[in-house]
Amino acid sequence: MADAIDSSNQLVRTLSDPGRPVAVKEQTVRALFGGRVGPRALELALEVVRRRWSEQEDILDALESLGVSAAAPAGACRGRARAGRVGAVRGRAHDRWQR
User: Fold this and answer.
1) What percent of the chain has pLDDT over 70?
2) d(CA 23, CA 52)
3) What is the pTM of this model?
4) pLDDT bracket for residue 88 (50, 70, 90)
5) CA-CA distances (angstroms) from residue 9 to 15, 17, 32, 33, 57?
6) Which terminus has fewer CB within 10 Å in the chain: N or C?
7) CA–CA distance from 49 to each of 5, 41, 65, 86, 96 (Å)?
8) Lowest-confidence region among 17-21, 28-32, 58-62, 67-71
């Protein structure tokens, strides 16, 4: 989402402008991302645009950080599952070698 928002200076200004009503920001996010991202990702993006940001770049940094944080647990789980499969294969290979 951060990349999509960052691709438009007007969109970054709209979502980070402290003078713009929160309802307008929420409507913009829902129009752009509703149905295209999961409900949790959408809610996190809405939470980000509800806050006040000192600089326009701060909103992008927040969205990017949330994206990395959300992706990390999934990647870690896949990594553990893969490591388990590799360990099982190595174990079987070791057993065969010992015979």
Assistant:
1) 69
2) 14
3) 0.68
4) very low
5) 10, 12, 15, 17, 11
6) C
7) 12, 13, 14, 43, 58
8) 67-71
Q: What is the DSSP string of 28-97?
A: HHHHHHTTTS-HHHHHHHHHHHHS--SSHHHHHHHHHHHHHHHHHHHHHHHHHHHHHHHHHHHHHHHHHH
**Banded model confidence at residue 1, pLDDT cuts 50, 70, 90:** confident
* Helix, strand, or coil (residue 99): coil
